[in-house]
Design goal:
The protein is globular, with a radius of gyration of 26 Å. The protein is built from twelve helices and eight strands. The strands form two sheets. It has a six-stranded mixed β-sheet, with helices on both faces. A two-stranded antiparallel ribbon has the order 7-8. By secondary structure, the protein is of the alpha+beta class. Its main location: endoplasmic reticulum.
C-alpha cells in the first residue's frame, strides 16, 4: 500500500533530483543504473525526474521489494540540506527506500525554491530522520498503528542494549545492594564485616533481583499488549486477520513492535552480561546457547512475520522465570517457606507453560495450522524458508526446556528427600572460584 503525502503531484511538472540508496539501484530499469556518484555517502543522483514521476517511481520500487512493505511519502522542509544529511549516520539513512528532492545552487535539498522535495520510505524507518528535520511532534504516539515489519525497526536496538546495563548498574548500587544486605543479614547489616562468602551471596541476590525486575516488566508488557488480541486465546488467528490479511502478508501494531524490541535488547545485553558480569555457573554453555538462540529467534520471527507467535512465546517464558528468581532471592535470604512456595509455583508453571502449552499449542500451530492457511503457490520460495527456519529454532528451544527440566526434577527430588527444604540451585554445583564481580 502506498500512501501519498499532501500535494505530492503538481499540476505543472517540476524537475526534481532523486537521491536513491545505492543498494536499491538494482530495482531500477537498466538505463537508470549509470547514475553518477552523489556526495551523500551511499546514494546516487538521478536528475531526469519530475514531480509527476514520483508516484510511478515509488510504486515501481514497491513492486520490486521483497518482502513487500508499505511506503509513505511526506514533503521535506527547506532545512533538509545535504549538509544535515551528511551529518546523519549511515545506519539511519540505509533503511530509507527513496529520498526524493530537488537540488538548489547551494547544494541543498530545497523544496521551496527549485521544486518539491519528498521522503519516501517505510513508515517506521522514517521516524528518526523526519524528527531530525521537522523536530519532535507533540502528537501522541499511536500505539495501535499497523505496519509491516522492517529491518529499520531494529535501529533502536543499540539504544536498548546500552539502556539495560545502565539501569542495572543504578539499581545494583542504589537498590539491590541495600535490599540484599537487609534481607540476607537482617537488622544491623551495616555493622557486619564483609567476607568473600557474604559478597558472593550478595552478588547472587542482586543478579536474581535484576532478572526478576526484567521478567516481571517483560511479562506485564507482553500481557498488556497481547491479552486482548484474538490470537492470544485462539492460535488460528496467528495466521489470519484482521480483515483479509493472511500470513505472511500481515501487519503488526506499533505496541507489539515495542514488545519485540524490549525483549531483543534485553537478550542481546544478556549475552555480554553472561560473559563479563554474572556468576559463571556449570551450565554456562547451555545458558549462552539459550541467549543466542533467543536473540536469533526474536530477530528472525520478527522479519519472517511470526511476531504474533513470538509475543505469546515471550509471555509463556517470562512467567515461570519470575517464580524462579523469587525463589532464589528467598533462598539467599534464608526464607525457606517462601523459597518452597516459589519453587513449587515455578515447577508447576514450567510444566504447564513450557512443556505442555509451548509444544502442543504453539509448535503445533507453527508446524500444522499455518499450512492450512498459507498460499503455497504465492509463497513458493519464501514460505518454506520461513516455515522450516522458525520451527527448527522453536524445536531447539524445546530441547533446552527439556534439558532444564531434568535439572529441575533433580531439585524437586532433593526437596522431597530433605522434607521440603529447597536445595541450592543445581546449576551452582560447579561454579568456579573466580566468579564475576559487579
Amino acid at each position: 500500500m502506498y500512501n501519498r503525502g499532501p500535494d505530492l503531484i503538481s499540476h505543472n511538472p517540476i524537475p526534481v533530483q532523486i537521491l536513491l540508496p545505492s543498494h536499491l539501484l538494482r530495482c531500477l530499469p537498466p538505463p537508470q543504473k549509470k547514475a553518477p556518484v552523489h556526495p551523500l555517502p551511499g546514494y546516487r543522483s538521478l536528475c531526469s525526474f519530475t514531480t509527476q514521476d514520483v508516484d510511478l517511481l515509488v510504486l515501481f520500487l514497491q513492486s520490486q521489494i521483497s518482502p513487500p512493505s508499505a511506503l509513505t511519502c511526506i514533503p521535506l522542509p527547506a532545512s533538509a540540506t545535504l549538509d544535515r544529511l551528511r551529518g546523519c549516520r549511515r545506519r539511519i539513512l540505509r533503511p530509507f527506500r527513496v529520498l526524493v528532492g530537488c537540488r538548489s545552487r547551494s547544494g541543498g535539498l530545497d523544496p521551496t525554491k527549485a521544486g518539491r522535495g519528498f521522503l519516501v520510505g517505510s513508515p517506521p524507518a522514517m521516524a528518526a530522520l523526519v524528527e531530525l528535520f521537522l523536530g519532535s511532534s507533540s502528537a501522541p504516539v499511536d500505539w495501535e498503528a499497523e505496519a509491516y515489519p522492517a529491518y529499520g525497526d531494529f535501529a533502536v536496538l543499540p539504544l536498548l542494549v546500552a539502556f539495560f546495563p545502565a539501569v542495572r548498574f543504578l539499581l545494583d548500587r542504589l537498590v539491590f545492594e541495600v535490599l540484599a544486605r537487609r534481607f540476607i543479614f537482617g537488622k544491623g547489616y551495616d555493622k557486619l564485616a564483609e567476607t568473600d562468602d557474604s559478597r558472593k551471596k550478595i552478588n547472587k541476590f542482586k543478579e536474581s533481583a535484576w532478572k526478576f525486575v526484567y521478567f516481571l516488566s517483560g511479562e506485564l508488557l507482553s500481557l498488556s499488549v497481547t491479552y486482548n488480541e484474538p490470537w492470544f486465546k485462539n492460535t488460528t488467528y496467528f495466521w489470519v486477520g484482521p480483515g483479509d490479511q493472511i500470513w505472511p502478508d500481515q501487519k503488526i501494531k506499533l505496541k507489539l513492535k515495542a514488545v519485540y524490541m524490549y525483549a531483543a535488547g534485553f537478550y542481546t545485553y544478556s549475552i555480554f552480561a553472561l560473559l563479563f558480569w554474572e556468576t559463571r555457573r556449570s551450565d554456562f554453555g547451555v545458558s549462552m546457547s539459550h541467549h543466542v538462540a533467543t536473540v536469533v529467534l526474536i530477530v528472525l520471527s520478527y522479519i519472517f512475520r511470526f511476531a504474533r507467535v513470538g509475543s505469546v512465546v515471550l509471555a509463556l517464558h517470562d512467567a515461570s522465570d519470575i517464580f524462579l528468581e523469587i525463589g532464589k532471592m528467598a533462598k539467599y535470604s534464608s526464607c525457606e517457606w517462601l523459597a518452597v512456595v516459589a519453587f513449587l509455583l515455578f515447577v508447576a508453571s514450567w510444566i504447564l507453560l513450557r512443556l505442555i502449552i509451548f509444544p502442543f499449542w504453539i509448535i503445533r500451530s507453527t508446524s500444522y495450522e499455518v499450512l492450512l492457511t498459507l498460499d503455497k503457490e504465492k509463497h513458493r520460495f519464501y514460505g518454506p524458508i520461513y516455515y522450516y527456519v522458525f520451527n527448527c529454532l522453536l524445536l531447539a528451544l524445546l530441547v533446552l526446556h527439556i534439558y532444564w527440566w531434568v535439572l529441575i526434577w533433580r531439585m524437586l527430588v532433593k526437596q522431597i528427600q530433605s522434607k521440603g527444604r529447597v536445595g541450592d540451585d543445581v546449576r551452582s554445583d560447579s561454579e568456579g572460584e573466580d566468579e564475576h564481580e559487579d
